[in-house]
Write a structure and sequence with these properties.
- There is one protein chain.
- It contains 8 helices and 30 strands.
- By secondary structure, the chain is of the alpha+beta class.
- The chain folds into 4 domains: 106 residues, Immunoglobulin-like, CATH 2.60.40; 134 residues; 111 residues, Immunoglobulin-like (Sandwich), CATH 2.60.40; 112 residues, Four Helix Bundle (Hemerythrin (Met), subunit A) (Up-down Bundle), CATH 1.20.120.
- Strands 11, 12, 14, 15 and 16 form a 5-stranded antiparallel beta sheet that branches.
- Strand 28 and strand 29 form a beta hairpin.
């Protein structure tokens, strides 16, 4: 009887183990097992539990044209939770024949799982690749990246604007994008204009209605003449293309297709500035400007100071030329100027003003002229040079020593005369005191004396208790890391929490919080902010792959949320996920 019971126990254990193993699924699925040599194959590796150390097969007989794309679905229905994670690859066969895609492996709960090999037959080219219309062909016809140049034939140092727009047809969509290659403007002075939020606009492309977003705005000032080439902007995007299948509500199901789009290179013909009519004092200013020379005062005494300001304001290449210099008589002592810039850059180029402020100190009594100063610039709108000349300014020094006979009022060279010191120079210093006596009080054995004497002894027990508590807290390394991580998450996510319920404000604040967190922890600038670099940096700093994936998915949610309806519950989930992920990253960073 005992032996039968043991056998039954073993049987139940085997059945329980089999059931537990059966709950975990890891399998490979392909879009088709027979395809033409000119078609593409999609293979998905699906699992119903998250795992680690996923290793795909080599795909030796295919070219990898897209992927891996990762998608995760996690939801609860009727009290039952459902989880699905998929790695998708897009393959192009190298030749005809039968080929085997070998096993992929992954670790789930400490166990290694493998997919079954799949045999694919590649036939001759077909007339209609991938069915009626290949998804890649649909994406090719419905996604366009365009570089709009404000002026293809500018003058040297004339501002031009390049605006990069991504056009998407109404039938397709974009779920993800990243900059694969950024233009380098080697022959230009350039400045990017910040874009706050990607607003979806409606417009036309080649006579057809499209939606578009402005991805980049750049202001350029050519520094060379002749044919200058603009390097293209290249994007790696995931395009959502409708299929012939429908969901239960009759809406077309979408398939994701990886695609590389480029704005195409552009060549600008930069014209030199004309030599005819060029002023002798021209120093490279191009634009439309006003010019003035002012002084803080025109009457003062010797050894007092005044400020002379040379200022240019307007629209043009304000950072790319020098202001004219100030010339004054030698009897006026002049210090190096303080240069100031108040410039903003928009689609019209640089606007604002620059100035040099000189401090001048006269040494002798008399009248001293500041000669007129001229400033020349080239106006590309009228294709002509302009010169502005300031008025002469006379500085009247009312009191002070008189220059020697060799130094007249209006000469620019002379001998300085020593200044006679005033006998009453230090008369303002008091030489007598008015001390008053105070009543002497006995401190020894007073209340204050005994208080100060006993206070250190009373503080010793309190100090011991505080010290023990501090040591205990410092010894709790894990607890300290958790507390620090939680404080950091709350610090960066404070603005986002205030904006819960307001979709655009919330996701802008959330994205800004993620930006600032990475900027502080990884020392990267906003210009370097792309998902691939973030993923590499976090992985190098030993952050777990699932935490990195969560962080990247939050960034993608911030991008997509501006174009899709979002509920209050979704925003709260994204906020909680962001707080948890920042906390985990801060604990795991090495």
């Amino acid at each position: 009887m005992k032996r039968i019971k043991n056998n039954i126990s073993i049987l139940f254990l085997v059945l329980a183990t089999s059931i537990a193993s059966a709950q975990i699924k890891f399998e490979a699925k392909v879009s088709k097992k027979t395809l033409g040599v000119n078609e593409r194959l999609r293979i998905d590796f699906e699992m119903n539990q998250d795992g680690d150390n996923f290793v795909p097969p080599s795909f030796a007989d295919f070219d990898l044209v897209g992927g891996p794309n990762t998608s995760v679905s996690n939801y609860s229905r009727n009290g039952k939770r459902s989880y699905n994670k998929t790695y998708s690859y897009f393959l192009a066969p190298k030749k005809r024949g039968k080929f085997t895609i070998k096993q992929a492996t992954i670790e789930i709960d400490g166990e290694t799982y493998k997919t079954f090999p799949i045999t694919i037959e590649v036939t001759a080219a077909v007339s209609k690749p991938n069915g009626e219309t290949a998804a890649s062909d649909v994406a090719e016809d419905n996604i366009h990246l365009v570089a709009e140049v404000s002026n293809a034939s500018p003058y040297l140092n004339e501002a031009i604007t390049v605006v990069y727009k991504l056009y998407v047809s109404t039938e397709t969509g974009v779920s993800n994008w990243r900059e694969k290659d950024i233009p380098r403007y080697n022959d230009f002075w350039s400045q990017n204009i910040d874009i706050k939020g990607l607003n979806v606009l409606e417009g036309e492309y080649k006579g057809e209605k499209y939606r578009y977003v402005v991805l980049r705005k750049t202001v350029l000032y050519p520094q060379k003449t002749g044919a200058l080439k603009l390097e293209p902007l290249v994007l790696d995007i995931t395009v959502e293309v409708p299929t012939n299948r429908r969901d239960i509500f009759g809406r077309p199901l979408m398939t994701k297709v990886p695609k590389v789009v480029t704005a195409g290179s552009r060549t600008l013909n930069v014209k030199p500035l004309p030599e005819q009519g060029k002023p002798s004092d021209f120093k490279g200013a191009v634009g439309n400007y006003s010019f003035k020379v002012t002084t803080s005062k025109t009457q003062l005494n010797a050894t007092e100071s005044l400020q002379a300001k040379i200022e240019v304001t307007g629209n043009g290449n304000l950072k790319l030329f020098e202001l004219p210099k100030l010339t004054v008589p030698s009897s006026l002592e002049v210090y190096e100027p303080e240069h100031q810039e108040n410039i903003r850059t928009n689609l019209g180029g640089m606007q604002g003003g620059i100035s040099d402020t000189y401090t001048i100190v006269p040494q002798y009594k008399g009248k001293y002229p500041i000669p007129s100063i001229s400033f020349s610039y080239f106006n590309p709108e009228t294709a002509s040079y302009k010169r502005i000349t300031s008025d002469e300014i006379v500085i009247d020094v009312l009191e002070g020593p008189t220059a020697s006979i060799n130094n007249t009022e209006n000469t620019t060279e002379g001998v300085k005369q020593a200044v006679n010191s005033n006998t009453n120079t230090f008369a303002f210093i008091k030489t007598a005191s008015n001390w008053s006596s105070i009543k002497e009080e006995q401190f020894f054995k007073s209340t204050g004396f005994w208080s100060l004497l006993l206070l250190p002894f009373l503080a010793i027990p309190l100090a011991i208790v505080v010290r023990r508590k501090t040591d205990e807290r410092n010894a709790d390394v894990q607890g300290n890391r958790i507390r620090k991580a939680d404080r950091l998450a709350k610090k960066y996510l404070g603005e986002a929490k205030k904006a819960l319920g307001q979709k655009e404000a919330f996701y802008l604040a959330l994205e800004k919080a993620l930006h600032n967190y990475l900027k502080a922890k990884l020392n990267i600038e906003t210009s370097d902010f792309n998902k691939e670099k973030i993923e590499n940096l976090l992985t190098e700093r030993q952050v777990e792959s699932n935490v990195v994936s969560d962080f990247i998915s939050i960034l993608e949610n911030c991008e997509l949320a501006r174009y899709t309806p979002i509920t209050q519950v979704t925003m709260k989930n994204d906020y909680d996920k962001a707080a948890k992920t920042i906390s985990l990253i801060d604990k795991q960073l090495r």
